[in-house]
Amino acid sequence: MSDLLRVTPSGLYCEEGDFYIDPWRPVERAVVTHAHSDHARPGSKRYLCASSCASFVRLRCGQDAAISCLEFGECRSINGVKLSLHPAGHILGSAQVRVEHRGEVWVVTGDYKTEPDPTVEAFELVRCHTLITECTFGLPVYRWPEAQAEFERINAWWSANQSAGRTSVLMGYSLGKAQRLLAGVDAGLGPIFAHGAVLGPTQAYRDQGIRLPPVRPVSEAPLDVEWSRALVVAPPGAEATPWMRRFRESATAFASGWMAVRGIKRRRGVERGFVISDHVDWPALMDVVSAAGASRVLTTHGYSAVVAKHLSERGLNAAPLETQFRGEAEEEGV
Amino acid sequence: MKRFVRLFEALDGTTATKEKIALLRAYFEEAEPEDAAWAVWLLSGNKPRGSANRTRLAAWAGEEAGIAAWLFDECRSAVGDFAETIALLLPKVDGSSTGSSLAENACKIESLAVLDESGQRQVVTEAWRCMDGAERLVFNKLVTGSFRVGVSRDLVVRGLSEALGVPRDEIAHRLMGDWRPTAAFFASLTDGTTAPLDRPYPFCLAHPIAGDPADLGLIESWQAEWKWDGIRAQVIRRNGATAIWSRGEELVTDRYPEIERASRLLPDGCVLDGELLPWAAGAPMPFNQLQRRIGRKTVGAKLLAEVPVVLMAYDLLESDGEDRRHLPLSERRDRLAAVVNEAGHPFLLSPTVEAPSWEDLRTLQQTALGRGAEGLMLKRLDSPYGVGRRKGAWWKWKLQPRSVDAVLMYALRGSGSRASLFTDYAFGVWKGHELVTIAKAYSGLTNAEIREVDAFIRANTLEKIGPARTVPPELVFEIGFEGIQKSTRHKSGFAVRFPRILRWRRDKRPEDADTIETVAALFEPLE
Q: A272–B13: do the CB atoms touch at under 8 Å?
């Protein structure tokens, strides 16, 4: 019997159901796990995603995109293939895709994390026969500290910058990471501002009932604003641009899983790093693989070859899935 | 250990000199004396006298973490740093770490020198099990001999001086020579007691003169000497014993037996500052002749005959057991002349260069090369013998230099018959606390030196970036070149033309290498 899902030039394809999951070329029917740019691409005829993901897909793929939604856990039959979406815990609306045909169950995790995050739907473990898992941080050196402890470090950094008269500029991906940072910091310490790119997704989170502290646009800051008291949340691309000049004396920090490694911080010239990741670390990846009960594991994104080899040595049927996903490479500053 | 780890992280996180000194001061004020002694030792660039080899460490760490060797290697190449890879891989500690001290951990590492593999493994894995991630990183760096922090010896001295309320020059002196990191040693930094008998004085160093020497004022106030091209050294004669220290603070007594033997004719309680020079027929031999003797611990009769060495004496720092550094140069010079004339060959008095005017002196300076010298030294006749490199009293007035002292930063494999060795090097000079590349050079070392540098690179690789291996800034080389150009390829903003390695400056510490400012100053006149 041929595989229920396989890689084609347009992306991961289900022939029985005639749909693609996170295709990288325009297709008839695209199932989208989440709205980051390497997963949700414009140009497809029809999109299917989780309800809480739709507004982000619309931002990414155009106002006219034909998007239909599924509630988490809701089942839809497409050409005889049963499809349902389950929270992936990566960003708001991020989903794992469960595909069932003739009693055989496949799960595509998309990007995911299992640790608690108040800004997203909590990850749900879905048992399956074949698991396709991401491996962005698929090395045993990646083990996240408790997020709460890391947020306390961010708060301490912010306070220290206030005493030193420096603006605190905290860099994180504008969709997902930025909102998690906003929700996690101690908003009582001082005013919070955000880069323009962060504002849209932040409003979309609020519209869905996610509680976030008040955030003011940097562009609308009053002339006499005391920047040194402020926390500014900005996407990594804003670093070392003229946009930064307004803060005069500033301290910059990055929030990313990559910050767990000193060498990466140094290579990227990061002044300060906080280990806040929206991906699974190595122990969580291993836990999910074993709890999913899959007899076969296909790996994608990042360290897919390493994870597959390690799982094979543990007696699992595992192999890397060749895809064009680049993953969130270290160089991209996520 | 935790306090030292916090110091390490804080020093790592700032480039501001003032902040670094404040951090050092706070540490030395708070730390237990034995820990503080170890901190001084390690921050001065010394290593624990013991280590474990990386293959074993990788194997033990892999087993602790429950991962296969290939997976360890994958992690290593992703992380870059060996010590950090292990720190990130080891299982997290249950509860809090037990809080062993820096001194305790350093002693554990020193004990490795006398243990077999299973003994070493027990010591290392037990240490790992009671440390948190940050402590493990520092411990692993110490155990692999790769611990480095961006502080110069001078900053450590200033931090100590502020913490202990002892003048900087005194601290610098008390840190010279051989000492061991003990609580007693740290106490002696404050009260100055229990000095080792062979302790040298800090060397007085000169800055290159920037402008016109005539701006220094009356020529009569200055003493000019040839700037000899050998190895700066102190010869110490105390209590009937001799010690010869190189400027790199290496004890080299055994390498210059002719000086050691002749020093018995020096009066007791006497310290001379001078240049070890290869000397034949009343003139210096080329430096590369001296190089034949530098690396050797013992020197054979043949080499002794072929390359005899003298001490060209510059200064007298101690006589009759008394520190004479505060005396004016003119007075020290008189005493020096008396001592050297009495002792005779191979002790030579560095001749002064007399000229009635700066113009005449310049004419003489131009003849330096023909005399086997690099230029002139200018020293104020009324100046005391200072500590370190201070501006004002001493200047070096070199002939237009066509060389810089640069630090080995990374290396690549050679080609052809040298494909198995790391022979292609990139060198950097200091820009603040950071090294920036200035040149790549391939040739100039002897085969023996190439093998030695290759072994250093293999044992000290920090990161493998593509085919390149980065190493800690430890080895200093003099790089000769034909000219300097602006460059966008090198981070320094300059590139030297036709670079070649003139010599391995074993006598220099990495912080003695040239700075980007020196290089920039060379740029203008050459183009």
A: yes
- Token pair in block for residue B261: 């033997």
DSSP string, A294-326: -SEEEEEEESHHHHHHHHHHTT-EEEEPP-S--
User: Using an 8 Å Cβ cutoff, are B501 and B479 in contact?
Assistant: yes
Q: How many angstroms separate the CA of residue B85 from the nearest CA in chain A?
A: 7
Contact, A285 vs A135, CB < 8 A? yes
- Residue A323: closest CA among A297, A298, A300: A300
Is residue A129 within 8 Å of residue A294, measured between CB atoms? yes
Using the CB atoms, write b or e for B255-269: b if 16+ within 10 Å.
Answer: bbeebbebbeebeee
Residue B307: CB partners within 8 Å, gap ≥ 6?
Answer: B278, B285, B289, B290, B292, B293
Please name the residues in contact with A329: beta carbons below 8 A apart, sequence gap of 6 or more.
A302
What residue of A is the nearest CA neighbor of B82? Answer: A263
Q: Which residues contact B331 (CB under 8 A, 6 or more apart)?
A: none
Per-residue pLDDT tens, chain B, 527 aa: give them.
999 999 999 998 787 889 999 999 999 999 999 999 999 999 998 899 988 999 999 999 999 999 999 999 999 988 888 999 999 999 987 666 667 899 999 999 999 999 999 999 999 999 999 898 899 999 999 999 889 888 888 999 999 999 999 999 999 999 998 899 999 999 999 987 777 888 999 999 998 887 788 899 999 999 999 999 899 999 999 999 999 999 988 899 999 999 999 999 999 999 999 999 999 988 999 887 888 888 777 788 999 999 999 999 999 999 999 999 999 999 999 999 999 999 999 999 999 999 999 999 999 998 988 888 889 999 999 999 998 877 789 999 988 667 889 999 999 887 666 667 888 899 999 988 889 998 888 877 888 888 889 888 888 888 777 788 889 899 999 998 877 777 777 778 887 877 889 889 988 888 889 998 888 877 654 33
Peptide bond between residue B213 and the one before it cis (omega within 30 degrees of 0): no
Query: How far is Cα A308 from Cα A315, in angstroms, rounded to an integer?
Result: 11
Nearby residues of A239 by Cβ (< 8 Å), 6 or more positions away: A169, A171, A252, A333
**Which amino acid makes up residue A237?**
G
Which of B74, B89, B147 to probe the A interface (max A CBs under 10 A)? B74
- Read off the pTM: 0.79
User: Which of chain A's residues have a Cβ under 8 Å away from the Cβ of B13?
Assistant: 272
CA B180 – CA B183 distance, rounded (Å): 9
Contact predicate B470/B410, CB 8 Å? yes
Query: What does DSSP assign to residue B483?
Result: E
Cα of A264 to nearest chain B Cα, Å: 7
Six-digit token pair at A133? 């898992």
Q: Cβ separation of B75 and A272 shorter than 8 Å?
A: no
ipTM surpasses cut 0.85: yes
A277 in Cβ contact with A137 (< 8 Å): yes
**8 Å CB contact of A141 and B81:** no
Outline where DSSP puts E strands in B42-161.
none
From CA B324, how far away is CA B314, in angstroms rounded?
14
Question: Inter-chain contact A141–B78, Cβ cutoff 8 Å?
Answer: yes
A102 reaches B (C-beta below 8 A) = no
Query: What is the chain A residue with the closest CA to B69?
Result: A310
Strands (E), B281-421: 283-284, 309-319, 322-323, 347-349, 373-380, 388-389, 394-398, 403-413
Give the list of residues 6+ apart from residue A252 with CB closer than 8 angstroms, or none. Answer: A169, A170, A171, A239, A244, A270, A271, A272
Q: What is the b/e burial string over A196-225, where b = at least 16 CB atoms within 10 angstroms of the residue's CB? A: ebbbebbebbeeeebebeebbebeebeeeb
Asked if B87 is an interface residue toward chain A (Cβ–Cβ < 8 A), one would say: no
CB contacts < 8 A (A, B): 44
Three-state DSSP at A102 gives coil
